[in-house]
User: What shape does this take?
Amino acid sequence: MAARALPGRGRRAIREHLELAGEDALERLRELPDDYAQMVTINVHEWLIADGDLAFEDRDVMVRELLLGPGGPLFDAEGRAWIEALTSRPLGWYEVVDTDPGTGFRVRDLLHPEEPPVDVLDRSASKTLVRWEILAARLVPWKGDWVLSGAIYPFVRDPDFPAILQDMRNELARETEGHPELERAFLSIVLPQEWLLRLLRPKRMPKMIDSSTGDPILLVTDHYRVRDWDRLEAALADQPDVDGDRTDGWIRFEDSENGLRRGRLALNVPRGGRGGRRDRLEVFTQTLKLADQGREWLEQVAGDALEHRTREISDPAGALGSSDGDAAARPAPPPVPVPTELVQELLESRYKDWADDHIPALGGKTPREAVRTPEGREAVIGLLKLYEQGEAHAALEESREPASFQFLWDAVGLSRGEVLDGGEG
Assistant: This one.
């Protein structure tokens, strides 16, 4: 009976589970990109196996009981051992606290912060996860290691996360009173539902502004053909606001009012040149106004040692949020390598007054003021994690080392080591 009961009743159980995200959830799920649709499919089928139940006339029966009980499907020894291990574990909510790309990563349990961190063996996920990533997942004991079951529910960190986490902890304690089976049932519904609601929520892209100029951020790359490397190198060497060389590229700096040097242009020499040519220079900056000023300056400095060929402009917000069919069909320009040193300069310039800025996400308080209370301290930690996670992903995409936000931790007297031990909340 067990095998015959699964298909029809299983489809109904899956539909009801997905509709927890709203009556129109199934329709909105059909509009998801293929990679997200595949993720939903994997997640919901694992939920059915591990935590779903099927309605019969006299009672509801857990699918895991039908699979492993009398009359269930025939498994080989290893297959049965895997199903037993998978179905023995609840869904949990975790934060990545360290990664070893190509081997695994370490997580801590967000809902049970008293539990020690767990090392997870996963060669694939460890290459894309970064520190402070938040995910719901099922950790399975397998052959002496902890591994991911296959389902994964990535959550986007935002400034409201500390409050959301505390609300979840409070609700979990109130609804389950610490009973493991009640907790498992609660999380098997609430975490997938919260993930689906966020996944299906209409995306609103923030307006991205360069804080030092007030101009919209656009990733602008001017491509030049170098006619005379010797003359170009000599011209740049004569500029007091330029550092670098032909091997590592050059950075043009600007002195700010507080004495800090702010990176304005990155002059990159492509490895081998475009298409194997060695006569190319790529000049990168992050606003159109700075790009125009930089082009005028460089052409005055270098004269006819350079020839401008083309300009590429990428809107980071539009690229993520555009619903225009033609725009989506255009291939994105290849990422321009930006030295970590330049990114570090830009970060330290952009956040130079951060500790004393009044920040809406902190209720209008400055970070230095907020850390004086436990709630404010957690909010500041959440912001720092948000910054570091974003930079880690950018560095991963650009095949470089991430820049450091340690200067912000230091500015407000927070220890990253303490946070790794105790974390938010």
Q: What stands out?
A: Residues 318-335 have pLDDT under 50 and may be disordered. The longest strand covers residues 145-155.
